[in-house]
Design goal:
Helix content: 10-25%
Number of domains: 1
CATH architecture: Alpha-Beta Complex
Order of helices and strands: EEEHEHEHE
Number of strands: 6
Length: 129
């Protein structure tokens, strides 16, 4: 069985005003927060580990309400900005929940294709316009 890691702790500064008062995972795409598009790409029985930091409370409330039928593990990242922060630290803080094969999926990445179950190491990429 595999898991999914969705890091959602950062400030989302590249989104400017959109993420100033909102975790970027809650930015709407087609009338739905982008993180819901990500979560819904995976089967309901898969554990999804979500790292929270910036504006964590609102994102956590949303996840518990909108995805109560999912197996979601929340990992709080207290050092999500400033010295020593970053994606590497976030993944390290999630380590105890990722002791099996997992798919790393950023919270702002819309996936159009079906995602294969990880039976071996693989890397997906896409051109960004």
């Amino acid at each position: 069985m595999y898991k999914v890691l969705i890091p959602s702790a950062g400030l989302g500064t590249r989104l400017g005003e959109f993420s100033k008062n909102l975790n970027k995972a809650l930015v709407q795409v087609d009338n739905k927060p982008v993180i819901s598009h990500v979560i819904e790409k995976f089967p309901k029985h898969i554990e999804i580990v979500i790292a929270l930091g910036h504006k964590a409370d609102s994102l956590k409330q949303y996840l518990l309400s909108a995805h109560s039928d999912r197996n979601i593990t929340i990992v709080n990242i207290s050092n999500y900005c400033g010295d020593g922060s970053g994606l590497g630290l976030t993944i390290l803080k999630c380590k105890e929940h990722l002791q099996s094969p997992f798919i790393f999926c950023p919270n702002d990445t819309l996936i159009l294709e079906e995602i294969p179950e990880p039976t071996k190491n693989w890397l997906g990429y896409s051109v960004v316009d």
